[in-house]
Amino acid sequence: MDKITRMLLLHSKLTKGEKINKVMFCMENDCKSRSFDRDIEDYRLYLSETFSGNELLYDRKENSYYLSGNHRAELEITEYSLLERLLLDTGILRYDEMKLLLEHLASNTENSGKLLKRQVEELKEYVEPEHNRALLKMHGDLSVVIRNQAVIEIKYHSENDTFVDYKIIPCRLKYEEKGLILVAQSVSDEWSETLYFDIERIYSFKTIRSQFKDEHIKVIECVKKEKYKMLSNKKTEE
Predict the structure, then answer these.
(1) What is the rounded CA–CA span in Å between residue 184 and residue 81?
(2) What angle do CA 213, 144, 178 make, to 5 degrees?
(3) pTM above 0.85, yes or no
(4) What is the dihedral of CA 116, 13, 83, 93, to 10 degrees?
């Protein structure tokens, strides 16, 4: 099992309140003890960077890891209804991804049975985007490389219907009216302009290396500028 899949599985189990026994996890998922230890350290780093109120704790007696204070509360119907409406109105996901995401949300909401039945009717009117790309996976994979402070090379489907390779430093992901956007900086020193890529047009990408110190500083500055621009736009709209 690859690292990304292991990390997603770890996160899923821990947020459900489960304890992760190291030996059993390694046996069931065919991974080495050393790989598991690295995954645990990466997950601790993830918790610290996202300012999570939870800690990853270790039960020595059971040789297991678990999240502190982890309580999984169901969504209220009003909360679910808002999320459902927002997701359907964006129209950025393929039908199969939208259906799966709404099912997961409904399954974690009170009176989930009624919501799942209502979903069938709501999805009948859902219009899929033309791109037909699996954006959930691409968004998840890009989130990982941003968190890991990596430099990547993307193959981008340009508007003139050709593929162009870009070496970039990914900074953040955001949503705009036209869809999901990857905000990035160029690896080239002489080109410091912020770059914007439609995620639906990213055909593929590969990790090249970790960021250098000066590149990580560029990322921090880029994120600050994006947040400032977002606040300025809101004030202008008001």
Answers:
(1) 33
(2) 105
(3) no
(4) -80
